[in-house]
Amino acid sequence: MHVVATLSLKGGVGKTTVALGLAGAALHHGVRTLLVDLDPQANATIALDVEPTTATVADVLDDPRRSVLHRAIAPSGWGEGLDVLVGAEQTERHNHPDPGPKQLNRLARALSRLHELPDNDGAGAPDDPIARAAGHDPEDPDAYRLVVVDCPPSLGQLTRSALTAAQRAILVTDPTMFAVSGVQRAFDAVHTERHRGNPELQPLGVLINRVRPRNAEHEYRIAELRDIFGPLVFSSVLPDRSAVQQAQGACLPIQAWDTPGAREVSAVFTALLGRVLRSRRAMAGRPAAAPPPIV
Asked: Where does the CobQ/CobB/MinD/ParA nucleotide binding domain start and stop, copy by copy (predicted)?
């Protein structure tokens, strides 16, 4: 199981869009995935068209027992193989500015119990090359192979809990004048949590969202980000396409929205999924203390 957090410490940059796009790509390629909605706005839960549950991630953070976790997870309306640890406004009560180690570890404890949940038929398609890259656990073929955590746009207990539980963090930004400071704060947060007790945690990269072609300001900000953060910035950017909002409004993955703009965005998310899975293989082949290179 590979845990990836989508992170931004600047609101309104499309962090949830990236979490949904990555989850949709995983679903499309048969990689069984759990999306954890840690944002109290619960926009990802709404977009994933989830049926009501008797518990939410807020309850799991109160009491990370297996029985509570089971009640807080529901199948996504997008299709079999993508489940949701549902978000709720009440999650905000767990967003303390200065949490202790016990509070920070609750999400990681809960995720460690995912293998104890009842089996279902969500295993990925073995003939898909991306699904094969994700790997199977022969002792538990129904296990989640990817967990995507959608963080709130603030550095409190919720975001730090995600970084405590994750192996990789995707730093999401947009090409505006505040982009550099937002990415720097997110990068520093990853670095801090890595040294506080999660040595597996690494930034996967910086993904620039809502890019408009032939926009001088956007081109300037992208160049600025590449100059400061170098190869940490993904070579592919997410274009600003109305198809993203249309698909979310219809509670459908962007991969199911058949327009040229949607196909362009979907291709970026497929590449992102491939990079996530390559980082998983790199991590498995190295000692825990040795971070993989950013490629």
From this structure: 5-248
Q: What is the 3-state secondary structure (H, E, C) of 172-236?
A: EECCCCCHHHHHHHHHHHHHHHHHHCCCCCEEEEEEECCECCCCHHHHHHHHHHHHHHHHHECCC
Answer yes or no: is pLDDT of 189 > 80. yes
Q: In the predicted model, what is the mean pLDDT of the chain?
A: 90
Query: pTM, whole model, 2 decimals?
Result: 0.90
Q: Is residue 110 part of a domain?
A: yes
The verdict on residue 15 lying in a domain is yes
Query: Which residue type, as a one-letter code, is found at position 127?
Result: D
SS (H, E, C) 36-89: EECCCCCHHHHHCCCCCCCCCHHHHHHCCCHHHHHHHEEECCCCCCEEEECCCH
If one counts the domains in the chain, the total is: 1
Indicate the range of 50-59, 77-86, 127-136, 226-235 predicted with least confidence.
Answer: 127-136
CATH of the domain at 109: 3.40.50.300
- For residue 240, being part of any structural domain is answered with yes
Euclidean distance between CA atoms 170 and 31, whole angstroms: 18
- Which residues form the domain of 69? 2-284
Q: Give pLDDT, residue 136.
A: 52
As given in the structure block, the two tokens for residue 61 are 């953070």
- The answer to the question of residue 289 being in a domain is no
Per-residue buried b or exposed e for 240-276, using 16+ beta carbons within 10 Å of the residue's own CB: bbebbeebbeeebbbbebeeebbeebbebbbebbebb
